């Protein structure tokens, strides 16, 4: 026994340096793998892409239906962005796509459950300060986790993911230590990290909000989320002005995705001329059409001297007399509340779902019926101000027209706060 113990000690001593070196190598490799890696599926002009953003040395490994595929680099690491964004077009009919060995959510030809969420970032701008470290004051992660458990077929984010524009005041502990500016750290904390469960739940349509303008969070938008290709030599380090619209077919309904991030609140005739033909696009499309863009028209986020306020006059001027009869709905955010409105005039109904996490519009109306907004009168609908949450459009079973839906509003914990029957351009809420 003594001989065996001594022999073991000798062998162990001889092997120790090698074992230590191997251990260090494994630790180093594990450290290299312990990196930021976020994955999602996103609609883009002409199709669907799997996307990833990583601080690893290369794009994640990809497999499509059992065959290895190569992600291409969308944007390389750069100033304030020590990450690379990667893309992989997903062919129509693909059954299984994996990134880094994890399956990606694939689009359905006919999504029946469409989650609407928007204005999700945490407000830090001068005197406007939100407690980003307090999940009760900035509850986007709660909403993302809960809404992911609802198993949507499609997620439509109506814009404004990036909100941390200035430093947290020294005396404000609720946001102490948070990053700010147009950097990857901010995009990670404001959107990708809290939204990771929802990113993995379903394919996404991304609207660009005014907080994704080039002078705000636009560089991150351009590098990672813009549906169009990234060119670092164009615009402001790759960030461009408003993009052209594109369409998404969701089986019986065509969604036109518009970029109204810079639309002036007061009438800007040059912008009216730019947006007018975009509103007219639906005239060449057969079947029902939804328009989705960040800033709403004929909507209200407050009342000043008894009059509704918050309508975007530039977009309203462009849309007036330009909307085709087949446009059934306008889906937006920007106002930090949940609103549904159908109108006396022959106009699409409006859905505002901008209550996903940023400071709420506490003075938005609860009763919207009868409001006159920029010459348009609300026939039916409701408002739910002061409540963080999200909403879900559910297709009426066996409806082949694309006209009949049920819209349900939820608070951030998943409790239902409203329900509306949608029939074409009409909304009947309770």
Short summary:
By secondary structure, the chain is α+β, with helices and mostly antiparallel strands. It has helices at 2-33, 140-149, 184-192, 196-199, 218-225, 269-279, 313-319; strands at 37-44, 47-54, 62-64, 67-69, 72-75, 84-89, 97-99, 102-103, 113-117, 124-125, 128-129, 154-157, 204-206, 246-249, 254-257, 289-292, 302-304, 307-309, 327-332, 338-343, 349-353, 372-373, 376-383, 389-395, 404-411, 416-423, 426-429.
Explained architecture:
With 430 residues, the protein is of the alpha+beta class. The protein has one domain (108-232, 241-429): Purple Acid Phosphatase, chain A, domain 2 (4-Layer Sandwich), CATH 3.60.21.10. Helices cover 19% and strands 29% of the residues. It is built from seven helices and 27 strands. The protein has helices spanning 2-33, 140-149, 184-192, 196-199, 218-225, 269-279, 313-319; strands at 37-44, 47-54, 62-64, 67-69, 72-75, 84-89, 97-99, 102-103, 113-117, 124-125, 128-129, 154-157, 204-206, 246-249, 254-257, 289-292, 302-304, 307-309, 327-332, 338-343, 349-353, 372-373, 376-383, 389-395, 404-411, 416-423, 426-429. An eight-stranded mixed sheet has the order 14-15-16-19-21-20-23-22, with no helix packed on it. It has a seven-stranded mixed sheet with strand order 13-12-9-24-25-26-27, with no helix packed on it. Helix 6 (269-279) packs across helix 7 (313-319). The radius of gyration is 24 Å and the shape is globular. The model is unreliable at 1-32 (pLDDT under 50).
């Amino acid at each position: 026994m003594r001989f065996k113990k001594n022999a073991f000690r000798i062998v162990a001593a001889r092997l120790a340096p090698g074992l230590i070196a191997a251990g260090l190598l494994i630790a180093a490799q594990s450290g290299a793998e312990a990196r930021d890696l976020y994955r999602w599926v996103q609609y883009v002009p002409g199709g669907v892409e799997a996307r990833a953003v990583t601080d690893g040395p290369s794009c994640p490994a990809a497999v499509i239906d059992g065959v290895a595929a190569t992600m291409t680099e969308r944007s390389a690491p750069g100033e304030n962005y020590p990450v690379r964004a990667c893309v992989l077009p997903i062919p129509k009919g693909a059954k299984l796509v994996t990134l880094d060995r994890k399956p990606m959510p694939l689009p359905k030809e006919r999504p029946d459950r469409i989650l609407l969420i928007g204005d999700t970032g945490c407000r830090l701008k001068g005197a406007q300060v939100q407690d980003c470290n307090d999940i009760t004051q900035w509850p986007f992660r709660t909403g993302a986790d809960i809404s992911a458990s609802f198993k949507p077929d499609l997620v439509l984010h109506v814009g404004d993911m990036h909100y941390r524009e200035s430093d947290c005041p020294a005396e404000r502990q609720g946001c102490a230590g948070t990053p700010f500016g147009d950097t990857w750290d901010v995009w990670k904390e404001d959107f990708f990290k809290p939204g990771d469960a929802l990113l993995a739940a379903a394919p996404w349509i991304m609207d660009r909000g005014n907080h994704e303008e080039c002078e705000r969070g636009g560089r991150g938008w351009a590098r990672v989320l813009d549906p169009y290709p990234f060119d670092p030599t164009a615009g402001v380090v790759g960030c461009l002005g408003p993009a052209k619209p594109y369409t998404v077919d969701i089986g019986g309904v065509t969604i036109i995705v518009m970029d109204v991030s810079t639309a002036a609140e007061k009438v800007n005739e040059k912008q009216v001329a730019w947006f007018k033909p975009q509103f007219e696009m639906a005239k060449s499309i057969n079947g029902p059409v939804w328009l989705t863009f960040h800033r709403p028209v004929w909507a209200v986020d407050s009342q000043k001297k008894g009059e509704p306020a918050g309508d975007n006059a530039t977009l309203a001027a462009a849309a007036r007399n330009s909307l085709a009869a087949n446009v059934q709905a306008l889906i937006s955010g920007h106002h930090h509340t949940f609103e549904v409105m159908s109108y006396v005039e022959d106009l699409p109904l409006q859905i505002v779902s901008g209550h996903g996490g940023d400071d709420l519009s506490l003075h938005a109306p609860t009763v919207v019926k009868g409001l006159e907004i920029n010459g348009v009168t609300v026939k039916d609908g409701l408002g739910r101000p002061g409540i963080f949450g999200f909403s879900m459009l559910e297709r009426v079973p066996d409806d082949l027209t694309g006209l009949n839906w049920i819209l349900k509003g939820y608070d951030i914990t998943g409790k239902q706060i409203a329900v509306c029957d949608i029939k074409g351009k009409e909304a009947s809420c309770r």
